[in-house]
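[step 3/7] fold_predict: job queued, chain A
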Amino acid sequence: MKKKITFLFISLIFCNIIFSQEKTILEIPSLESLIDSAIVNSPLLKQQETFILSEKYKKELIKTEWLKFIKPQFQFSYGSTGNTGYFDDEGGYFTSEETSSISSSFSVSLRLSVDLKTIADNKKKLLIANEKIKSQKLKREIIINSIRVDVLKSYNKVVLSQKLLDIQSQLFQAQLVQKQLAEEQFKNAEISLSEYTSVISLISNSMAQYEKTKMEFRNSYLLLEELIGLRISDIKFLNDF
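[step 4/7] structure written:
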């Protein structure tokens, strides 16, 4: 009889371990794809990109400041001219003819009036603008590196919590079998009340730890989704075990 119970106990543990392993294995996207998604969807990084564009726009304004020193000049002239001509009619009598004409002209020119100090100040402004752009780009790289680190930590936490949940699930399933056997043994007066109570207490503690591990896995997974800015619909939470 004892051999049958022992064999049943081992068989049930093995079957429950296989069942729990199949149920807790979840497909998590690759780390690189998660990092790429987090970078694309990061609000902080998008804000930083607007800062860079703003500094580039300011630089373009500085580069066009010299245009205000260009002043157009307009010139318009109007007048008439007259000429008297003498002509010889076949070598004989001279006749005269007076001619006149009216002319007008219009011209436009541009004049650049800027001193050396203004040119030097403009160069300094451009240097400062370039440094500001470099600074904003460096901040962007810092943000990207920070995102990579955060995703890596969150990813490892999800992987670890999933493994711990697998272990805890196996233990919990095994203890459920132990509980069933303990109940049967207690009914048959094979174990005392204190021994039975000890088993029930162990099961309760295991159940509490299992639920705690399960919640830690859910939280870590939700935090990862929040970080990458996407919901991974093909990964389902463990609602029932």
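[step 5/7] annotate
Residues 69-112 form one domain.
The chain has two domains: 2-65+115-228, 69-112.
exit 0
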